[in-house]
Amino acid sequence: xxxxxxxxxQALVSAASVECDRFVRESPRFYDEGTFSIYQFRQTLSQTxxxxxxxxxxxxxxxxxxLLKLDFEPKVSHTIRKSFRQTINQTLKTxxxxxxxxxxxxxxxxxxxxxxxxxxxxxxxxxxxIATNRRLLxxxxxxxxxxxxxxxxxxxxxxxxxxSDHLLPVIGDSFDTDxxxxxxxxxxxxxxxxx
Length: 195
Prior knowledge:
This protein is mostly helical. Helix content is about 80%, strand content about 0%. It is built from six helices and no strands.
């Protein structure tokens, strides 16, 4: 990954250098007759040629800067808005897409192992859940048995007092927990089949 990052960085720096090289060269038609830039250039030359010392050039610095700005800004704008964006996109496509395809192939090759791992994990989770449910069911069955015993005693007292119309109901027989939990076995294989 580091090597690829370095290659992308070098490609972008190289492309940026090419763009910068264009900035320091005047545009081919910048000084064509009839353009504002040639007029500005002549005005600047006129200003700098009024003296023979460096002072006239220093005084003409704002005009020189303005002249360079006229050529420089459109090139920078073109780079930012169009050419360099395309360069970046092309660089990323050229260098990153092959790596993404390679990563996708590697992921697909790992699929059987991932599926086997998922199956094992789901099986283990299901077994733990079944064990927990059995423990909870055992507690519920003990509570039901205690409740039914208490209700049976109360009902015996009510019958002895000839109050059979007010007997309390008991909770029915507990269901077959092993059969109920055994039916959960198909869930794991079915879930893995769908993956």
